[in-house]
Design brief:
6 strands, 175 residues, 6-stranded antiparallel beta sheet, mainly beta, 2 helices, 42% strand, elongated, 9% helix
């Protein structure tokens, strides 16, 4: 479990300027890259570092208004994420004798829906999933015997009031 934070100004960048059904907005690259680098990380069995900027092959998010009222906009969220790193590092306990050439990555398709409350300038609802394949491992994510491509998924929802926990990589947000 991890948490992604966005400032009010950043949230506004997800929302098309027109509230008409069909209006689209490309989420700024910096926000899409931050989400990809720091929150689509294979921590299923252990820990992995965030991705470096050069590991982002693709990170696109687009929102489209599918319904609109006087105070809310319902958004469809779609995106593509491709992260890939190659180098020399250790992978798990079976490889404790030393680093070796490795590759890790993931390719994900993101889809979701959100309701934006224009009166309060915030998301009232946000649900998305990112599904795809991951491969490779890192020293502490226990993938030493599972380096091949396999499915992975991520769920993105709004945190409840008692889940206001900083992201694991808040230090990298650059605020």
């Amino acid at each position: 479990v991890d948490f992604a934070w966005f400032t009010a100004e950043e949230v506004a960048r997800f929302i098309p300027t027109s509230h008409e059904v069909g209006a689209r907005q490309a989420v700024p690259e910096a926000l899409a890259h931050r989400l990809a680098r720091h929150h689509f990380v294979d921590i299923v069995r252990g820990q992995s570092p965030s991705w470096r900027p050069q590991h982002v092959r693709e990170a696109t998010l687009v929102t489209e208004i599918t319904a609109s009222t006087d105070t809310t906009s319902t958004l469809r969220i779609q995106g593509q994420i491709h992260l890939q790193a190659a180098g020399t590092w250790r992978v798990g306990a079976p490889d404790e004798t030393g680093p070796s050439d490795q590759e890790r990555g993931m390719i994900l398709t993101l889809t979701g829906e959100a309701t934006y409350d224009r009166a309060n300038s915030r998301f009232a609802r946000f649900q998305a999933i990112a599904l795809g394949d991951r491969w490779g491992g890192t020293r502490y994510n226990a993938r030493g015997r599972d380096l091949g491509k396999s499915p992975i998924g991520f769920a993105l929802t709004l945190a409840s009031d008692d889940e206001r926990v900083p992201p694991a990589s808040i230090w990298a947000y650059g605020w």
